[in-house]
């Protein structure tokens, strides 16, 4: 996939030993950005999807453009304390510490088919927490779409094992 | 503009006396979200634009979908410490305290025409700081596009006075 060649690797970011996969160089490229959205749209062409949920903050970029392309509404999954109306939240463990994602109570209704979108899947903790919120509201997670998978971190396998149907446009080895 | 009827007002958020204009109800609506992007695209149809810069985080949603629609690349203007490569930053004053936005050094090149996008213009401090970053890199701010203007807070007037050409799809009185 030519998309991969537009992704920049930043060594030792945000800390020693981590190879950070930076999609800003891909987003910056008009053809690359268009290709990302069109490739995701093509993959989900025959799926019934009611709305797109994007995970803050890079998932907003990919998810919102995909929602526009597919003619769907967009729901932001945000970090704690960012959504103004009534929310539900889900806490999850990080390597060190914990984090929390939130969703507006009216963002998803019973039986709706929701496609979850983020830029990258690593250990999958955030995506699993976001999926749990959608399911708590009665929504069905049709799939989880990413630009990049880091399969060595096991997140996509974990999502697959939970029936969350991950799909990514490209993979990078290592962390 | 029917867009306005899809925006929810949350009284006293994030603090007493503030009427928060919440676009999540608009984004949630497939027709409303599509209309927002198409209305912005129509407004800028005859402008020469090289790329879209969206301000974190809600500006990512509107800006990325607009970039997709217009076939342009997308540049994220982020809060301090969020961008992985080399950045420039701009500090600006808030009502209480200060904040900072950052841009990758390679996000804009000399002479490029950039459209700045956010969901809402209030006092205009963030938009002015983001515009300053684009200009520091040699870019030209073609305009600043918003879904909502709060004209009583004077931000759009301030941007206009600075030659930053603000445009909004709808207005709300008060704060």
TrEMBL record, chains A, B:
It comes from mine drainage metagenome. Pathway: Purine metabolism; AMP biosynthesis via salvage pathway; AMP from adenine: step 1/1. GO terms for cellular component: cytoplasm. This is adenine phosphoribosyltransferase. One of its GO terms (molecular function) is AMP binding. Catalyzes a salvage reaction resulting in the formation of AMP, that is energically less costly than de novo synthesis. The lineage of its organism: unclassified sequences, metagenomes, ecological metagenomes. GO terms for biological process: adenine salvage; AMP salvage; purine ribonucleoside salvage. It catalyses: AMP + diphosphate = 5-phospho-alpha-D-ribose 1-diphosphate + adenine. Keywords: Cytoplasm, Glycosyltransferase, Purine salvage, Transferase.
């Amino acid at each position: 996939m030519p998309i991969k060649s537009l992704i920049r690797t930043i060594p030792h970011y945000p800390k020693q030993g981590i190879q950070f996969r930076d999609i800003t160089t891909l987003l910056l490229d008009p053809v690359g950005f268009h290709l990302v959205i069109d490739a995701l749209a093509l993959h989900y062409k025959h799926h019934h999807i009611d709305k797109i949920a994007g995970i803050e903050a890079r998932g907003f970029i990919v998810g919102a453009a995909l929602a526009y392309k597919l003619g769907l509404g967009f729901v932001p999954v945000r970090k704690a304390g960012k959504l103004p109306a009534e929310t539900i939240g889900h806490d999850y463990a990080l390597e060190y510490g914990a984090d929390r994602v939130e969703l507006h109570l009216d963002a998803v209704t019973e039986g709706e088919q929701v496609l979850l979108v983020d830029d990258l899947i690593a250990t999958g903790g955030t995506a699993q927490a976001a999926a749990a919120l959608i399911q708590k509201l009665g929504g069905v997670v049709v799939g989880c779409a990413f630009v990049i998978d880091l399969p060595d971190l096991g997140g996509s396998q974990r999502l697959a094992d939970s029936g969350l149907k991950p799909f990514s446009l490209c993979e990078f080895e290592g962390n």
